[in-house]
Design a protein that fits this description.
Elements: E1 2-6, H1 13-19, E2 26-30, H2 32-42, E3 47-49, E4 51-53, H3 66-74, E5 78-80, E6 89-93, E7 106-111, H4 117-126, E8 133-139, E9 146-151
Parallel strand pairs: 4-5, 7-8
Antiparallel strand pairs: 1-6, 2-7, 3-6, 8-9
C-alpha cells in the first residue's frame, strides 16, 4: 500500500513534530501545478482531499455491508477536525510504487531545525542547483509556526 500525504501548510509546528521526525527530518515542497495535475488525473482513482470529522468512521467488520465497505474506503481519508487547517491531500494506491510525481515536481526542500548538519549537507550534495530551493526551518519567535531561511546549495 502506498500513501502519500501532502499539506498546504509547511509551517505547522504540529506537522513537523509528528511527521518530520520531531523536526529532525525534511519536507519536500511539491509544485502546486504538479499537485493540481495529479488531482485532475487521479480524481476518484487515488488522489483525495482528506475529510475532517468530529467522529471516527465506524465499520462493522463482522457484518460488513456495502455501507461499511464505503466507510472502510474513506477511513484512511478521515482525520479529526483539529487538523482541518492542514488542508491535506492523500494519494492512496494498492502498490508500494509511487506514480505521478517526479523530482522535477519538487520546488523546495526544507530541512528541520533539529536535523543534523549531515542531513543539510546531504541535501546540498544531492540537490542539483536550479532544480529546487533549499531551506532550513526554525521556530518563529513570536507565533506558533515555523519560519525558514534559504540555504545556498553550492558554495
Amino acid at each position: 500500500l502506498f500513501i502519500c500525504s501532502m499539506t498546504a501548510r509547511w509551517d505547522s509546528c504540529a506537522m513537523w513534530a509528528l511527521y518530520a521526525a520531531k523536526h529532525r527530518g525534511i519536507v519536500f515542497g511539491v509544485r502546486r501545478e504538479a499537485i493540481e495535475g495529479i488531482l485532475a488525473q487521479r480524481a476518484g482513482a487515488g488522489a483525495h482531499q482528506v475529510r475532517y470529522s468530529k467522529h471516527r468512521p465506524k465499520i462493522a467488520i463482522r457484518t460488513m455491508t456495502e455501507a461499511d465497505r464505503k466507510v472502510r474506503d474513506v477511513a484512511p481519508l478521515t482525520k479529526s477536525r483539529e487538523w482541518k487547517d492542514q488542508s491535506e491531500i492523500r494519494i492512496i494506491k494498492g502498490s508500494a510504487e509511487p506514480d505521478g510525481l517526479s523530482w522535477t515536481d519538487v520546488g523546495e526542500i526544507i530541512v528541520g531545525c533539529r536535523a543534523a548538519d549531515e542531513v543539510l549537507q546531504l541535501a546540498r550534495q544531492k540537490l542539483p542547483e536550479g532544480l529546487a530551493a533549499l531551506f532550513r526551518a526554525y521556530p518563529n519567535p513570536s507565533d506558533y509556526r515555523m519560519d525558514r531561511e534559504q540555504v545556498k546549495i553550492a558554495d
